[in-house]
Design a protein that fits this description.
The structure is a single chain. With 200 residues, the chain is mainly beta. The chain is built from one helix and 15 strands; from the N terminus they run E-E-E-E-E-E-E-E-E-E-E-E-E-H-E-E. Strand 6 and strand 7 form a beta hairpin. The protein starts with a strand and ends with a strand.
Amino acid sequence: MAYRIDSWFGPRNTGLAYASKFHKGLDINFGGGRADYGAPVLGTHDGVASVKDNLKGNEGRMVTLTSPDGKFRTKYLHLSSINVEDGQKITEMTQVGEIGGSRIGKEFGGQVHLHYQIERLNEESGKFEPYNPTEGKDRKESNVVDPQSWIQKKEDTFQMSQLSTMDADATRVELNQFFDSLKNMKTGIYKVVNGKIILN
């Protein structure tokens, strides 16, 4: 099912008394009204979840997902339920919650939708600041940035925990050195399954 964006990042005038004049994220739904209530909300990148599981404040129920390097985070507001735990490490496309309208102490304190917000760390101030999801481009779904692309990975499919039978020193070498060392091993000691090294 295709989603739609009803309110973009930046100045706005929705006519709703409780709505901000400058929108810090994107308001997303699948058609509008309460029909969207309970639709799944997926995390847009790998990271660590923090959970606000109450109806207080303008944000209502909220999940914040912070990137592994701590340089950016995404927020998922007004949820009807939360599907992750505080401190849980998740991967991209993990369901973090369900769409709702929670805010100001009510389950339906506002229209049913997902408020999705990206924030990047200002290294000078040490504070997270709202980031335009289209990076200043035209307001089109195709221009919304993919935060997963910001995450620097070192062969993230390589699992150190799978090397329990290897010498401990081998786990401390750079990945490229380790892969080189594998070439010198006997055939059959390991195999590659879905991009991961598995010891036989």
